[in-house]
Each structure stands twice: as structure tokens, then as C-alpha cells.
Amino acid sequence: MNEIKIFSPATVANVACGFDVLGFCLDNIGDEMVIRKTDKKGIHITKIEGFDLPFEAELNVAGVSALAMYEAAKPDCGFEIEIYKNIKPGSGIGSSAASAVGSVFGMNELLGKPYSKTELTQFAIKGEALASKCEHADNLAPAIFGGFTLVKSITPLEILEIPSPEDLYATIIHPQIEIKTSESRAILPKEVPLQDAITQWSNFGSLIHGLHTSDYNLIQKSLHDVIVEPYRSKLIPHYNEVKQASLQNGALGAGISGSGPSIFALSKGLENAEKVKGAMKKVYSETGITFEIHITKINTEGIKIL
Ligand code: HSE
After folding, report:
1. pTM (2 decimals)?
2. Residues 149, 171, 181, 296: which is the catalytic one?
3. Does residue 128 have an active-site annotation?
């Protein structure tokens, strides 16, 4: 096999109380990429469609993660990468992560799968860091593993797979504005009050327990973020209205998707997710800001060959 086409999914990071460690994978929304083995050595990005991104491998998220793997594997060939980008950069649904994992996943398949999923995530972190100026893997891990993932540690990299309750649906509204992850990280406090930390780790622990036991009531009680949301929500127009409308229309919880501007809600059942979609749509239709809305199941498969 000399060429492979892949689907690299969008993801939601943080999931309210799990800043920088928790994430889940989305169905249907994602980028496509073609990875090709070549006689010419090195990593060459030959095509980019959808958004205006750099072709130089060292300046491109997919290129940087590919180079990290290429330097480790030292293969007797080179690779061409074609990127068909659907996820808007700066959307908050893991655009850079999809690019970063796509190249290394495709190369790994073409090399006969020498690397584990965790090792692929390790290479992809280098690409993600180019975009966000910080090494974190809460979008990368769910894109590679699928489902919910918990990044237990970055050094050494340790990823836990968390079960996804069968009837859980995500509704995601993406206002068409850009928020750079690096900028929305820069506004966060370096220290947090102890009482907030206690609330956050209580919610985080109970959310993980709720996911393990499919306890929707506990998931509902746990989807709160007292540390990051107060700062970042100010960057997202009509955030509080969207969140309140989602909760009033049956969402278990709602929060900022990654570093925003996308807002996610989790619901039990498709019918509730549809109601939440209608409520989000109503709020944003009156703002004049263009937006997209998606409903997806939790994608337990993750990145895949097409
Ligand atoms: N955990 C990251 C953040 C996800 O919120 O900054 C966005 O890349």
C-alpha cells in the first residue's frame, strides 16, 4: 500500500470541568487527508483545500507532527500529504488536532503500524503545540482513540479510555468567529482559589464516575466549570444565553468546546439533542452572527481509513 485516504474527526476538549485533560470525539465532522509514500525523501505538503494554511512542513501543524514521526522512524522513503480541511481553524472543535493526528496516523498505516496510539499522540503533540504554543493532548487523544479520553499525564504520556454512555448526544454550535487557542489560554489565571479547585475536582471525579456507570443524573450534576468558563465565556458572544437556553431545553449540561468559540451541550437521547439545537439556533438567529450547528453521537471509533 502506497497511498491512504483518512477521515480525521473533530473533537470537544475540556468538557466543562476537565480542562486540558478530558475530551470526546465527534461523528461526521472532520477533515480528510491523503498520505502517499514517495521515493523523494522528506515530508511534502502538496495540496491544501478548504482553508489558507502554510505548505511548508515546518510551519504546518500536520507537517510538524509528520516530521516528528519521520525523524523517529527514519524510513527509507518520503511522504506527500494532501489536506482537505473542513474544520475551520480557531473553531474550538479540534481543527489543529485533526490535522496533527491525520498525518501521523496515515504514515503509521503506510509503514505497517510500527507505533501505538499513544506513540502517535506523542508525535501529534508537536503539531498541536505549533498552533496553541503549549503541549496538550485533550483534542488529540479522542481523535486517535475515539470516545472519551482522559490524558492522565503528558510526561510520560498516559491516556485512559473512558466509556461513552450509549444514549449520549452532543449538540454543538459554532459561531463563525475565530478565537486563537494561544490567546484564550493567555487570559487564564496562573493560580486558582482552593475552594474552586475542590469544586472542580469533585465535579470532574463524579463526571468520570457518571460516564463509567451511564448515570445521566450524575453527569448532569457534574458538568460545571468554575475555573475556566468565567474567563473565556466573555470572549464568546451570547454565551450565557446559549447555555441557559440549552439547559432549559433539556441538556444535561453545556460549556465551551475547547477554547471556543464553539459551545457544546450533552443530552440524553436524540430528541433532547434536537430540542437543544432548536434553542441554540433561536438565540443565535437573533444575533446577526453566522453559525453552524451539529448534532452527533459520541464517535467511539476515532480516526479511520476511508
Ligand atoms: N485544553 C485546550 C484549551 C483545548 O482549552 O486551551 C484547546 O486546544
Report:
1. 0.96
2. 181
3. yes
